[in-house]
Each structure stands twice: as C-alpha cells, then as structure tokens.
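SEQUENCE AND FOLD
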Amino acid sequence: MTKLVVTVVGDDRPGLVAALTDALAAADGNWLESELVSLAGRFAGVALVEVPDADALHTALAHLVEDGRLTVTLSPAEEAPSPAPGAPLHVFVMGNDRPGILREVSTALASRRVSIVRLETVTRHAPMANALLFELDADVRVPEGVSLAEVRGALEKLSSELVVDFDSDPEVPVDDAWVTEPRDTPGP
C-alpha cells in the first residue's frame, strides 16, 4: 500500500467529502486521518490516505478536478519522524484583533525553537463591544533546555493587551531545567 497526502481546495458545497471518499473507495483506498475546514466560503483540507495504486486514485479524482469542483494535489507521504524531544505545551492567546498578532506569536515561538504541532485561529465579535477579538489555540513542543518560563515571558512581552494562557501536561516527565506549572483540573 502507498500512503499519500491529499490536499484539496474548492468552493464549499454539500457533498465534497462524499465525492472524495467515493473516489478513494473506487481506488480501493483507506482514509487514515485528515483536517478539513470550511472557511470564507471555501473548502480546504489535507488527508492522509492509503491506496494500492496512486495512479488509480489520481484517475478516480480526475472528475472532481475536471468539473472545477476541487483543486487536488497528491503527494507521497513520508514516514512520520519521531516527535522532537521536549515537552508538549498548550498555548491560548486572546486579545483585541490587530494586524500582526500571529506573526508576533509565531516569531516568538520560533526564536526559542518551539515547534507548532497544531494551530487554530479565529476572530469573533467581542461581547458588549464593537470590536473583534483574536484567539489563537495551539499545541506546541518546547525543546529541551528551553523553560516554560522563558516561553511564557516571550509571549507575554508581545503586548499588554494580549491574554496568554498555558497548559503543560503533568504526565510528561521533564528535566530539572524546566519550570512547569500544574494543570488546572476539575475537582471530584
């Protein structure tokens, strides 16, 4: 079996996922994992699939491309490397929306060799205000030798208008160089 990464983009409409899975079934494939989203009237996604023949999947998807429903790219999937050493960390940032927040946050993380594993952002109307709030929700991996306090300090320096919240995993052992904070857990 061949593993492929399938990326798709097109105008959002009902039935796109069904059409993709029909094409995969026609190629005797298996859908392994995916991230799909509808955003601003567009449908976009990335999926990891497994097929006996990549050309058969390409042929099965051709009608979706030819009729203009989707732009589809098939790429060979690389073997997933082992997770980088370090500790997982959940980061949440919220503040009044303004240009550059994501750039500032990602630059602060990258400058400390923090790897972004998953990232979601959204803007929403602020309750009882005529403004937009920006929210960033991310799972990151902090490398060995970089303390949680250092990451927190870097993000909190970005703006006094941003609220930064962290959630470290107490189940993950960390070395003495780490400054960890307990996760808030609900009581019994």
Remarks:
- Confidence is low (pLDDT under 50) at residues 170-188.
- The domain at 87-168 is CATH 3.30.70.260 (Alpha-Beta Plaits).
- The first helix runs from residue 16 to 26.
